[in-house]
Amino acid sequence: MRSTIRPPRSIALRKWLQRLHSWLGLSLGLVLAVMGATGAMLSFQDDIQARLIAPLPLRGGETVLAPSVLLQRAALAQPGRAIARFVVESDPTVPALISFVDKAAGAKGRETVLLDRRDGRILGPLPAAPFFDTVERVHRWLAMPGNGKGWGRIVTGSAAIALIVLALGGLYLRWPAKPRDWRAWLTIPPGRKGRWWWREVHLLLGGVMMAVYLLSAMTGLWWSFDWYRSGVQRLLGAEQAEKAKSRGKPDFALAWQGFDAATAGRSYRRIMLIVPEKGAALRFRALPVAARHERADDAVTINGATGKVLATDFAAQRPGGAVIVASMFEIHRGAFFGLPGRIVLFVTSLSLPFFAISGVWFYLARRRMKRKGRARRVELCHPIATP
């Protein structure tokens, strides 16, 4: 008969892991709760904003302007601002998106507005853009000064590492005596009540969601630490190529002609143009009609001053490692696995505040029980004298 008594080393390891689990949860649990709640808010950002944009129906053979003409008109209408990004859909009734940057304020003065594709008229700001921009800054950097170059990304990256340790440590602490029995993983033992029932819920959900939390944390580190991103790229054999550079003032008409020539015969659902702060190396990101997700797009870099193609990176020609690297954001938010993946990531992100709150509750309850135990032992050692 197999003994169920744990060896001393196992007991010591469990105690050490329990202390580490509690310490990480107490020190970074609030950060993880904030990251989870904001991540859930961002899960369906694109869908929400797309619903808020009213289409512009075309009447009686009415046509839309060419993208290069729209860009030229937008640049002339905003002389004190630089174009940073331009997005146009294949559906002509969907307004174009254009992001302007105040030349004096830099990136802090960025504003995204809707553009009427029939005449280039500005329709107004992108719906809910300030709200989602704030949520994203909190999610990625806790809205700390410096944004991606400040201490905020170090804190969120440390929280992601803590989530990995919490998930793996929690798995060890919950490991049942009969791991092959599914009921040991997916059921709550009978007779549990009150705090002990909630503790079992904490353990059960943590075990069920562990793989998703590991995926979220390991992909989230991509934006926190350069050494981690470089290591993953080397591991997957998809090291980032140097960005193409070119001098001069960009000509949007020439650039679009170069893009059309480089992508001849391909159909796209959406085309995004990214304009650098300096130089004329314009980057096009075009999403094919049958793309699996939003980041499975073709990338083309054009010398905007001459229309010459500087670099191409077509999604259909990428090796497996490059596909993962290009899709890291979609993997992080679950869209790489379709709508079910996004729903799973939404639920698991939303549950992080529950783990933070319940973990603090269990810790305080243990402290209270220890104080009562010490007081009881003192009473037994020093009984009250009776006359």
UniProtKB/TrEMBL annotation:
The keyword Nucleotide-binding does not apply. The chain crosses the membrane at residues 20-42, 151-173, 201-225, 343-364. InterPro entries: PepSY-ass_TM. Pfam families: PepSY_TM. The keyword Transmembrane helix applies. Keywords: Membrane, Transmembrane, Transmembrane helix. This is PepSY-associated TM helix domain-containing protein. The lineage of its organism: Bacteria, Pseudomonadati, Pseudomonadota, Alphaproteobacteria, Sphingomonadales.
